[in-house]
TrEMBL record:
The chain crosses the membrane at residues 39-70. This is DUF3742 family protein. Keywords: Membrane, Transmembrane, Transmembrane helix. It comes from the Bacteria.
Length: 115
């Protein structure tokens, strides 16, 4: 069993290597036919792409984290102010509590709307 699995893996890897070599040969022949200025432009473009894309993604993530942090800070500040104003509005004195009356409800009857 182990021997057949090793042989299968070996044949798959050998075939993949042959395919990669064939692609490399085609790319090499294509580059030999391409003029040097075009190859230079392609190399510069590829270098810019490789260096700028990670930089752009990193800056995007940093700015989004800063924005999220600022939103959290401002929301917590607003909620503190809001709770403080609500607390001031809800404060009541003992005099008001003494004037309160309790009402007992025995039965509630609803009138039917006549249409």
């Amino acid at each position: 069993m182990k021997n057949s699995n090793k042989q299968y893996l070996y044949s798959v890897l050998r075939q993949a290597w042959q395919e990669l070599r064939a692609l490399g040969d085609k790319a090499g022949k294509g580059l030999m036919r391409t003029p040097l200025p075009r190859i230079l432009i392609l190399c510069i473009g590829l270098a810019l792409l490789i260096t700028l894309v990670p930089l752009i993604l990193t800056l995007f993530v940093i700015f989004m984290l800063v924005k999220l942090f600022l939103v959290v800070v401002t929301m917590s500040g607003r909620s503190r102010e809001q709770t403080a104003t609500e607390f001031k509005q809800k404060q009541w004195s003992y005099k008001e509590a003494e004037d309160a009356q309790f009402v007992r409800v025995e039965q509630i009857s609803y009138r039917q709307d006549e249409r």
